[in-house]
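step=encode ok
step=design start
structure_in=
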């Protein structure tokens, strides 16, 4: 699993003109990609990492300050544009595999006590955020 994690001061996701997920103030916007060999164990590991990664102000984590997370599925994180001009998506897991694993990440975070907002799997989403720093890291498990 791969996640692009951005420290934000507010973020939202809109589908069909309707806000489906939003966090206000300090938190993390997390784009999650799934590949073919990912497992529920990796999803749980990613959830623990996201909850405890110390990238908020003063090297705090979401678990330290109760900061919310906006988690959005993002199959394009496994896109490969090394050859030609059109990316391939061969490394991205199909929806039937990926969706339950993204749901596992969200459930794992909530099980740890996190406030989690989400996008809509497979939808055309419009994501808005204020990247605080800017601060962006890639987390892989």
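sequence_out=
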């Amino acid at each position: 699993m791969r996640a692009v994690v951005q420290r934000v001061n507010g973020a939202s996701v809109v589908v069909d003109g309707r806000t489906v997920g939003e966090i206000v103030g300090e938190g993390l916007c997390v784009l999650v990609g799934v590949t073919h060999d990912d497992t529920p164990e990796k999803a749980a590991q990613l959830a623990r990492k996201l909850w405890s990664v110390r990238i908020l102000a003063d090297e705090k984590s979401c678990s330290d300050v109760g900061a919310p997370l906006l988690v959005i599925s993002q199959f394009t994180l496994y896109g490969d544009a090394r050859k030609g001009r059109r990316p391939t998506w061969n490394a991205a897991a199909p929806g039937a595999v990926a969706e339950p694993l993204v749901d596992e990440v969200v459930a794992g975070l909530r099980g740890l006590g996190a406030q989690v907002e989400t996008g809509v799997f497979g939808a055309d989403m419009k994501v808005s955020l204020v990247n605080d720093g800017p601060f962006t890291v890639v987390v892989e498990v």
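step=design ok
step=annotate ok -> The helical segments are 40-52, 62-65, 95-111.
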